[in-house]
Batch of 3 targets.
Target 1
Amino acid sequence: MSTGIPFHIGVDLGGSSVKAVAVGRDGTLLGSLNLAFQDRNREWADRVDEAVRRLSSDHGTPEGIGLSAPGLASPDERSIAFMPGRLLGLEGLDWTRRLGAPRPVPVLNDAHAALLGETWIGGAAGVRNVFLLTLGTGVGGAALVDGRLLKGHIGRAGHLGHITVDFEGELDDVGTPGSVESEIGNKTLRKRCGDRYANTHALVAAVEAGDPEARRLWNRSVQALAAAIASLVNVLDPEVVLLGGGIARAGRTLLDPLEVHLDRFEWRPGGQRVRLALATLGDLAGAYGSAFNSIRRTPPFPGAEQ
Amino acid sequence: MSTGIPFHIGVDLGGSSVKAVAVGRDGTLLGSLNLAFQDRNREWADRVDEAVRRLSSDHGTPEGIGLSAPGLASPDERSIAFMPGRLLGLEGLDWTRRLGAPRPVPVLNDAHAALLGETWIGGAAGVRNVFLLTLGTGVGGAALVDGRLLKGHIGRAGHLGHITVDFEGELDDVGTPGSVESEIGNKTLRKRCGDRYANTHALVAAVEAGDPEARRLWNRSVQALAAAIASLVNVLDPEVVLLGGGIARAGRTLLDPLEVHLDRFEWRPGGQRVRLALATLGDLAGAYGSAFNSIRRTPPFPGAEQ
């Protein structure tokens, strides 16, 4: 079945499924897989093996493999160093050895990988100063600074959902008081609305139907998001702010009120405003970014400085 | 008067005075000046000329000159591109030409310069991932990422005082709702305390004397600061957080409650905590950083990657 076209495999290990792509150096997608698993008995590791095996069987030997997963990647990029509570056995697992790969398999945090994918061939292709907010169950994020992934001292940088918008609010999973994740993430929706809406999708549908209580709740969440974005613009000074995740599928229902709030909150020196854009790679962003993370380590090193 | 020792001049143009240092490549201070001015008739430009002339007269011809000032530095580092409202005439002024310097005079934002100074020979010497918060009239900031100054797309990055801690709060000077600057900066103190204390120094003295109302107010400000620091740790993931400015002179009166709040708010993966440190260069930090910004452009380029 091999096409003979040189390609790389990108694997994104998520909380409940493994996404993987086989992709050429120019971004051409040769094939993709989404393999669900239960988080028990290291089933996730078997699904990663299976994804690599099936894509190799279909398309031939890859030039390289890249991988992303939740947690903090180790400084040597061979493993996830820190991921408590879930995916037991992931911490410290050396993926180059596990996959028996002839070349090192670079490992990234999943949000870092998603942004790398989006700046490669997605919603912010070619942009060198950009941050991504993924609005879903929680709020994830990542930032690119002068074309480099912002990783920080222990690989934690870019956890943009865990910034305070209400310093007297409740602490979130990592201790951040009144975080933007708590204000807009789907995981707190039922609590915020007193079980009136089952999830953010239902809330957005009610907003679009003109329900006043839904509009009030939604506006509050979007105002908190706008404050977070304005803050991050002052910290990181991007050219583009990229929005992804299930909640970003609300489209204009999200962007219209967000722009109204940003017109008040965003510092625009000399009238310069930051462009808002939507992520375009969906739930394959991390797999694409992981593949690119391998591609950029292979001569002639496109964007190798990242 | 020349000592014959090779040196650089660093000039920090502030809102009401020019600070300047003559300093060797190893950080040895040969001389410093602090020349006050009124912000009218471009008096500030004459004071910069005077500072360079006097230090050159005392110590000989410098190997190079660096300069910092408020506002956003231009991408070519020859001028301040954006500084509305104050220091009329500063925007676009080419300092290499103005000073008739034989080599380019690199220009930095003042907070960026202060952090460069502190990471050269100050409170975070040699640290490559660190951010600075200067707690004074307002709250300034700057960040170093992997040894590089975080400047961003238009030079705005690192305006760490302008991050939200209360998204329903009043907008600050640049539009940020409920910013940490509004919660702890001296400029809002009288409003926050209903004129009970004349300034933050008086508030801190009352805290130390056991005044319960002062303690309540101070604790609220420090709690807001802790939330901001915890947020910025999640965004930037530094090794060290550096605190400077007049309010940081409160020492333990600041650090003790701050550490109590950070014990709750700071995400510490695997128990790793970020070190808090005090800036040590005081109001010469910007001048030192400007000098180093010139030194690192002169062979053999110490820390030239910054």
Note: Chain A has a mean pLDDT of 95.
Target 2
Amino acid sequence: MLALTPTPPYYAVIFSSLKNSADEGYAEMAEKMEKLAERQAGYLGIESARSGLGITVSYWKDLPSIQRWRENTEHVLAQQMGITKFYEQYVVRVCLVEREYRFNRSSAYDK
Amino acid sequence: MLALTPTPPYYAVIFSSLKNSADEGYAEMAEKMEKLAERQAGYLGIESARSGLGITVSYWKDLPSIQRWRENTEHVLAQQMGITKFYEQYVVRVCLVEREYRFNRSSAYDK
């Protein structure tokens, strides 16, 4: 599902990662973190894909919401687990979304 | 490969998409567009993953670079092809990258 984010401005956190071969417990952890993120104040949506490289983009109302999520206790534990067990490399980019354009085939042909 | 982007600020274009089942010519087009993007002025890097949902994030020096890439003739044709042939839905988000954090296992254990 593409995230139904509001009219900009809002924030995006782009998490790009290269995993190692340790998969045990990874999918469960990733799913748990997505569900936990959804319950945070200021959460706007999430999009995730993996094919070799993994990209998860979470969307947030503002920087304090991102800061709170970053410091969430369960999330901190997952971040540590990511470093000790799962990731070879990752980059986190915190971004201000300035503009958004959408295409939807069904609404394109409705009009 | 994770993109070796410079110290922020710089720009990111997050392209999130849901494809239809038409695959003929898609991989070739996507690869051609990545190679073409690499040759544009202001291009900083690209990251791409697909598993159901597709996410491609391209990184750029500034907004004029993004504007030029958006209007590039071959890219305009590919965008039209995407709309008529390949995508059910997509969202393009233009973002200012304000902060970046990296983890690299090998450098983590070197230090």
Note: The first strand of chain B starts at residue 10 and ends at 19.
Target 3
Amino acid sequence: MKNLGVHPYVFPMPVLLIATYGKDGKVDVMNMAWGGVCASDMVALNIDEDHKTTENLKLTKAFTLSVADREHMAEADWFGIGSGNDLDDKFERTGLTAVRSEFVNAPVVEEFPLTLECEVVEMGETVSGYKVIGRIKNVKAREDVLGEDGNVDVAKLHAIVFDQVHNGYYEVGAKVGQAWGDGLKYSDK
Amino acid sequence: MKNLGVHPYVFPMPVLLIATYGKDGKVDVMNMAWGGVCASDMVALNIDEDHKTTENLKLTKAFTLSVADREHMAEADWFGIGSGNDLDDKFERTGLTAVRSEFVNAPVVEEFPLTLECEVVEMGETVSGYKVIGRIKNVKAREDVLGEDGNVDVAKLHAIVFDQVHNGYYEVGAKVGQAWGDGLKYSDK
């Protein structure tokens, strides 16, 4: 094996979009790969304090977190390039549509396939930097990503995967196994 | 859009293996999907306090975190089924090979393609449950997953993706885009 030094090389990483309202009701969306589920009803966002998003979170105590899909990869990527601190029309440039969540004081971007609507539980500096913990109040899915059981079929999400090593985006391929299934061959039962 | 209620539905999630030594030098490995990078040199593990892994972490203050690949999917899945609290041979049943890390007091499972070697920085109860923060001291990669630039080629990892909705494992498909690239069309520059 080769030693590569210190790098944040976990794979896969998600491509997540954090959407918030500013003090003027303005929609801001930023792109984040370092974060996700931290409890059965909670998510963790590892974002710097100087983001527009953080300013908005302090004000509204709410956000939505959406999964980026292949069809909106350029828009999702832009949300990681432009800064809401510098641009007044960062969101509007994409032509995407935001509507107010019925569950929290934050916008839902309708084009993304899967969105968690969250309230801020805690935010502040930690040993690993600025962190926001949100409680999931509802999950919203586009009708076309639902399977026959009425629940999300992840194959239909067309979710993209972030490659931290070379900044690539990958698609998700075929289903190859079943959790709490493939490993049973090592069990006594 | 359809409202689905409260669920931890972020996608993709990684399939990560946490490897530790017990007080007798015994290797334990557990499977985790809720966690990952939380800073450029840190990872967060969201695991319960009653795991064998947590007991070991309190003792050794070190762990390794590996990416599960398709070739070792059954082994990785087993590490999420069996408990080191109940089984004395949980790791040995898989036939995998553990060697001591040169960087931290924890085992490296040689068969996994990519491993982060970490020291515990902080562990304890938080607003979102028990959490462990680790500092990355080194990243190790199998030689066969390196690209021509000597760095990790994520396509060669054959990493698997966890589907929280239906407990499926998926493979990663083709590269479809470039971060800080595809979104530039919305920039002024």
Note: The radius of gyration of chain A is 18 Å.
